[in-house]
Amino acid sequence: MTTANVGHLIRRQRGLVRRSQLDLAHEIGISPRHLSFVELGKSKPSAALLMTIAQHLDLPLRERNDWLLAAGYAPRYPETPLTGPALSRVRASLQALLDAHDPFPGFAVDLQWNVQLSNRAARRLVAGIPEDVRGVPTNIFRTALHPAGLAGRTRNFPQWSAYLLRRLDRSVVRTQDPRLAGLADDIATWPAIPERHTWSHLSSDEADDPVLPWHLEFGGRELSMFIMLSTFGTPMDVTLSDLSIELFFPADQQTDTVLRRQT
User: Fold this and answer.
1) Which one of 3.40.50.2300, 3.30.530.20, 3.30.450.180, 3.30.70.2330 gives the CATH number of domain 86-261?
2) For the segment 108-123, what is each residue's pLDDT rounded down to a tens digit?
3) Class of the CATH domain delimited by 6-70
4) What's this model's pTM, rounded to 2 decimal places?
5) Strands of 214-218's sheet, edge to edge?
6) Residue 139 contacts by C-beta under 8 Å, 6 or more apart in sequence?
7) Torsion of CA 77, 82, 85, 89, to 10 degrees
8) Can you tell me the distance from the alpha carbon of 216 to that of 204, in angstroms, rounded to the nearest whole number?
9) E strands within 106-211?
């Protein structure tokens, strides 16, 4: 945070969520001139004003801490290991949710889409994929897009990869995380992956389906699944703010039957 002042960070986030300076200023109850001075670095905002702006721009907790540090304040939100005792109850609840979703696959992933928790059905899907392909811990993007991962078993790879690449691209832009950016650069060199600059414009339309299905060969049968994402509604810890749950559901009766027979 040594090269970017907090005004630049506010202006950048405001642009990402497409909010005008005038609208944001009126919404949080300050003058557009004051907000302009904050963004230009001519006025130092209070910590309270920073957090108000962050809330109205729906800024993740990790980046709220970055704003506070950039403005010379102490970070406000802790980052507790998911494996630590302080989050043991939350972790147990998440694992119970994933286990209850079995025999359908489910994951809990962090900001870089590394798998932090999973159920048996999810682990069956990636069984046999080498560690150097899926990463340690297992990374969703690597596992799904690598030619030695699930890419070769994905029957609608152009559409499914377009969906994943758009998500990865948005995450890189939103977070400016160098680890995600490095992962994106690596993936861009793999076979059947479009050029990096096209990712935000990729289309995965399948007009006959209400949601985009993932068609995956599994045990000699083709599975068809759709995904549902969920996050914590009121996180006060960076770890939980970064965490999301991915639950896969069968999109047809054959998939439902095949997965239930795996138990």
Assistant:
1) 3.30.450.180
2) 999 999 999 999 999 9
3) mainly alpha
4) 0.86
5) 115-118, 106-109, 244-250, 221-231, 214-218
6) 112, 113, 114, 115, 183
7) 100
8) 16
9) 106-109, 115-118
